Amino acid sequence: MSMTVNSIFRYPIKGLSAELLAEVTLAAGQSIPHDRRFAIAHATTNIDLEKPEWLPKTRFFMLMRDEKLAQLQTRFDEHSGFLAIERFGQLLFNARITDTQGRKSFEAFFAEFLMDCPGGPPRLVEAPGHTFSDAKQKPNSTTYKYISLVNLATIRDVERVARVPVDPNRFRANIYFEGASAWNEQKWVGMELRLGKARLRVVSLTTRCPATAVNPTTAERDLDIPRILREEFGHNYMGVYAEVAEEGIVKKNDLLLPL
How far apart, in whole angstroms, are the C-alpha atoms of residue 146 and residue 29? Predict the structure, then answer.
């Protein structure tokens, strides 16, 4: 059975909801366009927006600690800069977060929404060309901007031992794929892949943190994924990070081929 792309996602704001894409154009050395373009930083987080550097996720509001963020469904329009936020089907926020007034409105909304969370008043941060990714630069990699891939067969194997459904969105991947045997992707580090018209280089396995315990539908911590991985499979990995080596368009149902 051929490996194929099942779905493509981006996460414009670190820690907030996924956006399903019909297709994406990948550029060499870059992440999916607008993926983790923004982040909600703690008041005490120091970021040089002119020369941004990678920072650990604990400097930002994120699902690992702030699970109530999963209550929100967001949609970002990169052309207009407008962000819409819904909660339980009700529109709560709609403003252009790429201008000063819109950012202030965004920060005011989250100051109220996150008032019971630690970290001080939130700040919306953006640094042109920077990606607020959890992944640091990997050995032998030329960038820290990666595409994350998750094997749906591996998730089904986790479901087998957990004995409950496991929503793939817990893993916040960019690409979910079908057609490989469970855990086969763990052999890919150092390999190159053809993904649609693009070429990728797999740089590392993806370590899973307590953010995966948060149910993306209910916003409750209801399944300890890191514990299940450690106790049942002897490791704490789910999926891989890859860097884009050659640009190209990727669509749903495109082939994923080892090179």
Answer: 8
